[in-house]
Design a protein that fits this description.
About 45% of the residues lie in helices and about 20% in strands. It is an alpha+beta fold. This is FtsX extracellular domain-containing protein.
């Protein structure tokens, strides 16, 4: 009697466990990934490494600060980073320290300050950049898409993919 019961009960248990696992999978997918934190308070770019962002390059620090404050109220922005002209020049010198010819040609006043905006998830970077160009005509607005850039420089080679948060 025990063997007959087990032959009938085993498939029922397997189906029940499978249905439970399937339901758990559906619930997890319905909930989706955790929300990313939103902090639009402008902070120094410093050690942050954005990889999916829109950058606004500006000729002077005062305009950069005003632009950053305006973007702090933008509901499409998730994070806002600033870099003064002096900070940008110091970063330039760090990056190109092995190219003295280039460094001799570039003066501190040649390097703009910047505001870097990491948008909310699922934002079209190109579309957002076009919108920012209209709203901030004083800025040179550029898209920073690290994954696309890597594919242009080293097509087909594996490399880090930009995380959903938009920065490494």
């Amino acid at each position: 009697m025990g063997a007959r019961l087990w032959r009938w009960l085993a498939p029922v248990l397997v189906l029940a466990l499978g249905a439970g696992a399937g339901a758990a999978f559906l619930v997890a997918n319905a909930i989706g990934p955790a929300e990313l934190p939103v902090d639009r308070t402008p902070v120094p770019l410093a050690q942050h490494r954005p990889c999916a962002a829109v950058q606004l390059f500006l000729d002077d620090d005062e305009t950069m600060r005003r632009t950053a404050q305006a973007l702090a109220g933008d509901p499409q922005a998730r994070r806002v980073f600033v870099q003064t002209k002096a900070e940008s020049y110091a970063r330039f010198r760090e990056l190109y320290q092995d190219d003295p010819e280039l460094m001799a040609q570039v003066r501190p006043e040649d390097i703009p300050g910047s505001v870097t905006v990491i948008p909310m998830p699922h934002t079209d970077l190109q579309g957002y950049a076009a919108d920012l160009r209209k709203r901030h005509p004083e800025a040179d607005v550029q898209v920073l898409d690290g994954t696309a850039f890597r594919q242009q420089v080293r097509p087909g080679e594996p490399g880090p993919v930009c995380p959903r948060a938009g920065e490494f």
